[in-house]
Amino acid sequence: MKHIVKIMTFLVAVTATWISLLQAALIPRSHTFLLPLYFIVSLGCYGLFMVGVGLMRFPTCPQEAILLQQDVIEAKQFLKHKGVDVGFD
């Protein structure tokens, strides 16, 4: 199942639930009208939380850092050999 179909199915389900709550009057109408706003705010908070968790769990790769520094040194040497000024050593 494609991702867009899952999203659309979820949105249709949320919309159907919201409309049924509006018509059933189980929750006061003033609160029911604010449910989409609550949903959007909750979705934003969830997104920010997931970004924060991703940043806290961001893996460090010391071996990759060493390889990258070696590549930079190699590139500087190559450019110096070609006569390009690469700045400080």
From TrEMBL:
Stabilizer subunit of the dolichol-phosphate mannose (DPM) synthase complex; tethers catalytic subunit to the ER. Belongs to the DPM3 family. This is Dolichol-phosphate mannosyltransferase subunit 3. Pathway: Protein modification; protein glycosylation. It is found in: Endoplasmic reticulum membrane. Keywords: Endoplasmic reticulum, Membrane, Transmembrane, Transmembrane helix. It is a multi-pass membrane protein. Its main location: endoplasmic reticulum. It comes from Centaurea solstitialis (yellow star-thistle). One of its GO terms (biological process) is GPI anchor biosynthetic process.
